[in-house]
Amino acid sequence: MFLLVAHFRDDRPDGAAGTGEPEVPSPAELLAAAPECRWLRYARSTEDVRRRVLVAEFGTAADYRAALSPFHVRESVVPWLSTADVAWTGLSEVLLSADGGSVDRHVPTVDPDGG
User: Taking residues 77-87, what's their average pLDDT?
Assistant: First the structure.
């Protein structure tokens, strides 16, 4: 199980980021519609209304790559993800999960040494 976590900053002028309904970018909706995407959340920080975070779950790293492979997704989602804060953005392998009170440990599938 893999999580994509991407942090964004909404720098619309005049504080527009904190007023009214927050704009959900269409690339987030495209990624959410991919069959390989198990679930997706796009959220606004409660401490700084300009901060956004995207969290999406995929079964495997290959599923994440497959979700990005259709051309219409690639031309929209990839450029949008490239605007994320690179220091806090990436694909992570889940080691422990808890759903409904049940805790599961997951065996890593990606070699930590990259080999």
Answer: 90
